[in-house]
Design a protein that fits this description.
Elements: H1 3-10, H2 18-26, H3 28-39, H4 54-62, H5 69-92, H6 103-125, H7 133-149, H8 159-185, H9 192-213, H10 219-241
Helix pairs in contact: 2-3, 5-6, 5-8, 5-9, 6-7, 6-9, 7-9, 7-10, 8-9, 8-10, 9-10
């Protein structure tokens, strides 16, 4: 291959200067190379198409702006309040307010449990990228110790009999709140700390109702039958949420 042939090869696809055009006219190999290159048709890369489901387009048209996250918190807390009221009605026939602890302690602990209910819902649904385990753990420990240490100290029933009854009642009263929290959690990306916070928030419904209804105020009973099921619900929410499909992967 002559130097002119190399220059023709480098200039393919561009207008040739007169000296190279004259070389192509006299060189059969270069003429065939240029004619073959000119015969090629440029192939355009196909435009990428993203298939968007019709349902997604309809939803986007109906709601062009994202729903504020605090509305979901209000919905969840509203469900908690309604279910708490239903649970209170169900316990009325048995005596709703049976806790013999002083009124100040009774009201103070009830407010603390209510704060854990609302705060857990906020932690579970707020659009933050990182949820601190330390915050969830510290608040859980404060509520648990306050409930155990804030009892009346009176043991009314045998330990096993009272424990079974309160555990069953706690789980029944917290079942629907936990289901509501799991439904809300599926609308955002999975995060273990959020799942635990949601479970504790839902379990606060049963914890609050037991707090005012149960007449057994011994520390052993409160730890095993009130705080124990509440912590179990936090772990149960984590276990169930990790196996549920996610409807929305937004943080």
């Amino acid at each position: 291959m002559s130097p002119e042939c190399s220059r023709v090869l480098d200039a393919l696809g561009q207008p040739l200067p007169p000296e190279l055009a004259a070389h192509v006219a006299s060189c059969a190999e270069c003429r065939a190379l240029v004619e073959g290159f000119d015969a090629l048709e440029p192939v355009e890369a196909p435009a990428m198409k993203v298939a968007v489901p019709a349902r997604a387009l309809e939803e986007l048209a109906a709601h062009p702006k994202p729903t504020p996250w605090w509305r979901e918190v209000l919905m969840l807390v509203g469900a908690y309040v309604g279910l708490t009221a239903l649970g209170a009605l169900a316990l009325t026939s048995l005596g709703l307010f049976r806790n013999p602890a002083p009124l100040g302690v009774l009201v103070g602990l009830a407010m603390l449990v209510l704060l854990s209910m609302v705060g857990g819902a906020v932690v579970a649904l707020a659009p933050v990228r990182r949820t601190a385990w330390g915050l969830v753990g510290m608040c859980t420990a404060v509520v648990a110790l306050s409930v155990v240490l804030g009892g009346s100290g009176l043991a009314v029933k045998g330990f096993l009999t009272g424990a079974i009854g309160c555990m069953r009642t706690h789980m029944l009263l917290s079942a629907l709140p936990l289901l509501s929290a799991l439904v809300m959690l599926r609308r955002s990306a999975y995060h273990p700390a959020r799942a635990v916070a949601a479970g504790l928030s839902a379990g606060a419904v049963g914890l609050l109702l037991l707090h005012v209804h149960c007449s057994d105020g011994s520390a052993a009973h409160l730890a095993a039958s009130h705080v124990g099921p509440w912590l179990l619900l936090g772990g149960l929410a984590l276990l169930v949420r990790s196996r549920l499909p996610t409807g929305n992967h937004a943080p």
